[in-house]
Specification:
CATH topology: Alpha-D-Glucose-1,6-Bisphosphate, Chain A, domain 4
Strand content: 35-45%
Distance between the termini: 27 Å
Helix content: 25-40%
CATH architecture: 2-Layer Sandwich
Length: 162
Amino acid sequence: MSYTPHTVNPDLDLELVREVPVSAEAVYAAWTNPESLKQWFAPRPYSVPIIEIDLRPGGGFRSVMNDPEGNQMMDETGCYLEVIPNERLVWTTALTAGYRPQDGPMHFTAFLELTPTGPSSCTYRAIAVHLDPAGAKQHAEMGFHDGWGTVIDQMVEHIQSH
């Protein structure tokens, strides 16, 4: 491990930890390939028809989520802060490409930390860090745990089928 794991603040952070039956390398690839992300990044029957990634610190990302009828319900942009292949991704919605601040209804910083537990398995740790307890509560009420848990299952299914 070439980083210090994020220390969770229970008042500000939401955390999801899961052992997954796929390698850290496969998870990292699923998170960093736009065509792969389109297949699993939204809880079905929602979809993510647009994913743009500039995978480097300071690089931007964009994801557009549609409802089951095809209506756009979210267009989110952000900035990668840390990129450690096969180990860790850190990004935020408070900034856009080039570390430029941006307005938005609810900003958070996300940590994805991957720890191999075997040749074909890893610990998947996702953390959403918020400015204040109200932001963490709002994100939890929007379905952070259920939504991110569902997409982990979809990601594993996608990896195993390809």
